[in-house]
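In pairs, describe these two lines:
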Amino acid sequence: MMKQGIKYFICCVFVLGNFLGYTQQTPHYTLHIFNNYMINPGVTGSTECWEAKAGYRTQWMGFESAPVTMFISAHGRLNRNKSSSKASFEGLGAYIIKDQTGPMSKLGGHISYAFHFAVSRKVTTSLGLSFGAMQYIVDAGDLKPLNPIDPAVSNSSSILPDANVGIWTYSDDFFIGLAARQLLPLTISGTEIRMMDHLYFTAGYRFLINRTVSIIPSAHVRMGLITPPQIDATIRADWGNKFWIGMAYRKIDALAGLVGFNISPLFKLGYAYDYTLSKIRNYSSNTHEIILGFQPNCNGGSNRKICPAYM
């Protein structure tokens, strides 16, 4: 009974933190190495082929009001000018996302655009922008106030515009990017929650072991205006762009196992399991995340060398 009480208390504190706007307001992803487009609009069109992905993440299973995130996305190249060594092209994409934590949820979509230009024969840089709208909903029916008729506890819904920008530099062997999300400092109507910008830094490099096997360490840093930086360190081993396994460590928070493989020439699957390292592990059964990708093989066989960010 006492353990259940502690679990309910922690859950209430977590949800209250979201109401006050003291926790990070953007979704968490463990498979960010498989999902850079949802983080940085500069990634738009950087893959050789058009691709579509659908993802689902359930965090801290066992908590009644734990976060759940789901999305669908698609992006690709519009054109490419190969008339000179300074090739350039554009990318276009879009995504829809739903993110829910207890009584609070958000649903929305973005359209993204990026311009890519060669900085050398092997290295390309892109500048990206995405713009859309998000609907923020508070369902008072999921709240349990001490006073059930408290007039301060009521349903609310607000639709706000949203914008993100990013820069992305990549080649066949490395990637590095910086993105700023939630650039518009707007307030959800009926609450004191204000949207705050978040910065994301991502980088990785491929070390070739032989013609088939490569090792890819990467780092992902998320920074909020009023929250400490959250650092993910990941290492993957890839076999011929067909199968990869890896591990990730999120400072203080979790240790994760990752796996991904090509189901067929058209479909890719990635899965992550987070083992919680904080005291919350005593009251939850950790976190699961899965992403299914669709990408037509538009440029050669499965062994072609591609940027390690898109395996």
In short: The first strand starts at residue 51 and ends at 58. The radius of gyration is 20 Å. The first helix runs from residue 2 to 20. Residues 2-310 form a domain with the Porin fold (CATH 2.40.160.40).
